[in-house]
Amino acid sequence: MIDYLSILLYVQIGLASVCMYRIIRGPTIPDRMVGIDIFGILVVGICAIISIQTEKSFILDIGIAWIILSFIGTLTLAKYLTGKKLNE
Amino acid sequence: MNTVSLIFITIGILFNLLGCIGIIRLPDTYNRLQAATKCVTLGCCSILLGVCFHFGFSDAAVKALVAIPILFFTSTVAAHALIRGTYHFGIKLGKKSVRDDYKEAVK
Q1: Packing angle between helix B29-55 and helix A29-54, nearest 10 degrees?
Q2: Residue B39: its chain A contacts at CB < 8 A?
Q3: Could you report the predicted ipTM of this complex, rounded to two decimals?
Q4: CA distances from B103 to A80, B12, B95, B107 (A)
């Protein structure tokens, strides 16, 4: 029997795969970057739901680290889009 | 498993669903980023609040509470930087957009 929380977890994983559609299909480069940014936020929700299912708290640490790495990655890509060097 | 945390997680997933519909259906890069960032940030903050209510007074609840402001600030700042970079990259607004105030601000 599948409980209610597993259904919510599968829905969240499905929404992350919807973002993969925009990453693969996006017409321009900024569209793909938007997809990567939103995908990084959705993974944090997946980590939170898995931490309830397994009753372990270290998975939330993975979520926090993922937020910060996604932030640094998105800022780097945005800096690349403006056409400047990274130390300007 | 208590009911309050399930209610918060369900609300968060509904917000995430609306954001992902926006990222598929909207016609323009700026519209997509605006819809997706707002909805998905609020949805994941609601999920983390539900996790905090589930664990009660323990270390996992503190971790979830710390993750909420980090997620809130970093995702909005990243979206602002990304949309500024997109404008300077030369992507035009959509056909139905009627107003572009940033064009005068750049000059």
Answers
A1: 10
A2: none
A3: 0.87
A4: 21, 36, 16, 7
Burial of A5 from C-beta contacts in 10 A (0-12 / 13-18 / 19+): middle
pLDDT bracket for residue A84 (50, 70, 90):
low
Q: Output the pTM of the full model.
A: 0.89
Which pLDDT value is given to residue A25? Answer: 86
The amino acid that residue B64 corresponds to is A
Q: B4 CA to chain A: closest CA distance, Å?
A: 13
User: What length is written for chain B?
Assistant: 107
User: What are A2-58's pLDDT values in tens digits?
Assistant: 788 899 999 999 999 988 888 898 788 888 888 988 999 999 999 999 999 998 889
A80 has a chain B CB within 8 A of its CB: yes
**d(C-alpha A41, C-alpha A38), whole Å:** 5
Listed in sequence order, the DSSP H helices in chain A are 4-25, 29-54, 58-81
- Positions of chain B with pLDDT lower than 70, given as ranges: 1
- Taking residue B30's Cβ as centre, other Cβ atoms within 10 Å add up to 19
Q: Do B51 and A71 touch (CB under 8 A)?
A: no
